[in-house]
Write a structure and sequence with these properties.
The protein folds into 2 domains: 125 residues, Aspartate Aminotransferase, domain 1; 265 residues, Type I PLP-dependent aspartate aminotransferase-like (Major domain) (Aspartate Aminotransferase, domain 2), CATH 3.40.640.10. It contains 13 helices and 16 strands. Helix content is 35%, strand content 16%. With 435 residues, the chain is an alpha/beta fold.
């Protein structure tokens, strides 16, 4: 039976019967809203309701939906080939993409390993770091140093470097590899980092650097772990300490890459280059699943000159031509659109629109960086209830915990962004409806 033969009510019923959604319960399910089409910044529901998407489909659809240039890239490529194995075979879309990524990312990241999801790109980065040190004869460097408040994905190695206490994966703490954690950065984005702000991080690295293969962090913005914006000066000092103690630095730019924070890559706020960088999410403009892990020549040479003679990893869908073609079109679209001015416009509108939230009794804090707006509540929200109210306002916003936040598509107009924020305000300003 095809989807076309179902009535909307049947879709909803069968969804609850058969489908397990992310971070959802099957015994106490939250209703899922059926989307039948999407265009620009709008999602259209089965009942005809149109919603302004404030989430860019979990931060990846930076050009919105049904973009003509990205559509054309996908259609053109699928007529030639949708996929070929990447072992012993290459093709123009992948080569072009890798060259472009080397050109636009921070200096020194000269080699690109492609995979098919952000979590896997983190797994690849961790594996690179471990294999690098094994190849150098330092197999004792088998630990990682991460930051509390961080999030790096849902697979096992990625989970092991997420926040160990308050993160989404703390229930697995008895089965995950054990690593080192420094305090969540508390020095604000616009502040300088003094000795006390980074003292514990420094102490952990000084004491344990002989066991630490790499530091892994989300530069400038800790995303799903709490939408924490921290000082570029802190990141600059982390880079210096890693160099001083002969520890690799992994920058997880899966959420922050491709302009979201107001720089093309968040590392640019501190003017630093990591040894390894993870990219994903908006790499294809939200069209296809694709990720990349970049590294320096030193890392790649160190791995390939070791006992194995190669990097021991090979995803089946690595270098998928269809995804690479769309990624090339997405990057071309971003770089050709005066993206910097556009992000500044979104940031300015967000800062204006978010001011009234500071006067609400149930709001603890608000913050904006680039095309990210965050409203932190004093108490966790009731997801099912608040989601329904947002839909009634004609907007799509997906909070978690205490955080009601937006990461809209970059094509959103000021009028659409204002409507999005008015809808959020209307819901949050109504007493006793969201907690």
């Amino acid at each position: 039976m095809t989807a076309e033969t179902f009535q909307s009510s049947e879709i909803s019923q069968k969804d609850q019967q058969f489908v397990w959604h992310p971070y959802s319960s099957l015994t106490h399910p939250i209703p899922a809203y059926e989307v039948v089409s999407a265009k620009g910044v709008y999602l259209q529901l089965a009942d005809g309701t149109q919603l302004i998407d404030g989430m860019s489909s979990w931060w990846c659809a930076i050009h919105g939906y049904n973009h003509p240039e990205l559509n054309a890239a996908a259609k053109d490529q699928i007529d030639r080939m949708s996929h070929v194995m990447f072992g012993g075979i290459t093709h123009e879309p992948a080569v072009t993409l890798c060259e472009t990524l080397v050109d636009i990312t921070p200096t020194g990241l000269n080699k690109v390993f492609l995979s098919d999801s952000g979590s896997v790109s983190v797994e690849v980065a961790i594996k690179m770091a471990f294999q690098y040190w094994i190849s150098q004869g330092h197999s004792n460097k088998n630990k990682l140093l991460s930051l509390k408040g961080g999030y790096h994905g849902d697979t096992f190695a990625a989970m092991s470097v997420c926040d160990p206490t308050n993160g989404m994966h703390h229930i697995f703490d008895q089965v995950l590899p054990q690593h080192y954690f420094a305090p969540k950065p508390k020095v604000g984005f616009d502040q300088d980092c003094n000795d006390s702000d980074i003292a514990e991080f420094r102490a952990i690295l000084q004491t344990n650097h002989q066991q630490i293969a790499a530091v892994i962090l989300e530069p400038i913005v800790q995303g799903t772990g709490g939408m924490n914006f921290y000082s570029p000066d802190y990141l600059k000092q982390v880079r210096a300490l890693c160099t001083q103690h002969n520890v690799l630095l992994i920058a997880d730019e899966i959420a922050t890459g491709f302009g979201r924070t107001g720089k093309l890559f968040a590392c640019e706020w501190a003017n630093i280059s990591p040894d390894i960088m993870c990219l994903g999410k908006s790499l294809t403009g939200g069209y296809m699943t694709l990720a990349a892990t970049l590294c320096t020549d030193e890392v790649s040479n160190g791995i390939c000159d070791g006992e194995a003679g190669c990097f021991m990893h090979g995803p089946t869908f690595m270098g998928n031509p269809l995804a690479c073609s769309v990624a090339n079109a997405s990057i071309d679209q971003l770089l050709g659109d005066n993206w910097q001015a556009n992000i500044d416009r979104i940031a300015s509108t967000l800062k204006t629109q978010i001011k009234p939230f500071t006067h609400l009794d149930n709001v603890a804090d608000t913050r904006v960086l680039g095309a990210i707006g965050v409203i932190e509540m004093k108490e966790p929200v009731n997801l099912a209830e608040i989601q329904r109210k947002f839909v009634e306002q004609g907007i799509w916003v997906r909070p978690f915990g205490k955080l009601v936040y937006v990461m809209p598509p970059f094509i959103i107009s000021d009028e659409q962004l204002e409507a999005l924020m008015r809808g959020i305000y209307s819901v949050l300003s109504t007493e006793n409806t969201v907690i």
